[in-house]
Amino acid sequence: MTIPRHLQERLLAGVRQFPVVTITGPRQSGKTTLARTALPDYEYVSLENPDERRMATDDPRGFLGRFAGPIIIDEAQHVPDLFSYIQGIVDEVQKPGQFVLTGSQNFLLLRSISQSLAGRCDILHLLPFSRSELTGDALLPIEGIADRGARLLGSPEDDLFDTLFTGGYPRIHDKHLEPQVWLANYYQRYIERDVRDIVNVGDLETFGRFMGLCAGRTGQLLNLSALAADCGVTHSTVRRWLSVLETSFIVSLLRAHHRNFNKRLVKSPKLYFLDTGLLCYLLRIHSPKDLALHASRGAVFESWVVSEAIKNSMHRGLRPDVHFWRDSVGHEIDLLIEADSGKLIPVEAKSGQTFNPDFVKELSWWREAGGLSEATGAVVYGGDQSTTFKNDRVLSWRCWG
Predict the structure, then answer these.
(1) Which residues have a Cβ under 8 Å from the Cβ of 365 and sit 6 or more positions away?
(2) Suppose 101 and one of 22, 132, 327, 390 were both cysteines; which one would form an S-S bond, judging by CB atoms 3.0 to 4.6 Å apart?
(3) Distance of CA 244 to CAs 267, 342, 365, Å?
(4) pLDDT at 263 over 70
(5) How far apart are CA 226 and CA 25, in angstroms?
């Protein structure tokens, strides 16, 4: 059974307004399934097929002329010259919903769009399953903190560490696969295909070591010089490789927020993986039980909280307006969500399964330092009960997603 995706509503709105809609995201995040499920009347072709790719390259007019109606073109980045011919068609026909393009190599795809389809294309991003998608619950805006404690997602039998260890890649859930076996193959395919296509990496073993070092720095301030030294490559190489991980939706660099409260701020970004299953694989965590006892448990949980917030925005077709905050003396807020009204909502992530008043200490400090006595924050923690503590919401992980 196909699990419904929250982005489907936004996709259907896009094809009613734009001549071209593009769905990007990491490999195996469900882009093709989403497009074909949401748009069953569209014709479909994949440029992963060597014969189709050859025809699109050699005879783009003939390739596009084969299709009588609207069409889904999968892995469209393989034939960048095709975009100029699509531009000619949409400029001539002038009606919405003519093409849906998908691609897992975001850098190559968006470069082609910017050159040929700027202003004609709606760009959507699909990440692996969010928790609310897996549980079949409606999508609540992530900034609606006050509404989250009123509902629990999924079954009371759901286990936190099993959720983190499994991650959200659709095929694992659709086919009930062993996460670590599937992710090992996924990782190898990513290294051997996508990385080679996007950037000229001579030593794939070194790039793999670089990914493992990034996994070990999840939730930490990014120090490019230290990462380069540990990996044995140059500073500029690390910067380029991080760009590859970011544009292929493996990691997200959470930027620091500018609010300074008259204190010196840390400006370096923090590194997070967008799928905790892949993160556990890279950290060599072999089971949910191992994760529960692992030194990186808190970092994995924090990465999950941040990634769920990013998915929440992207799957509504919005740019994630999320940051972190940290000053030079060490006061820190894990996640700052900026609502449409401009209001900032501070969120702390704590993997502990028993609430401790110390969980809200940084929220209280942040509120007092900024003169924001009425601001409501939240702690997302590993326990089952949601409540209110002083000014803040204490949210079970079961409410988040």
Answers:
(1) 331
(2) 22
(3) 21, 31, 37
(4) no
(5) 29
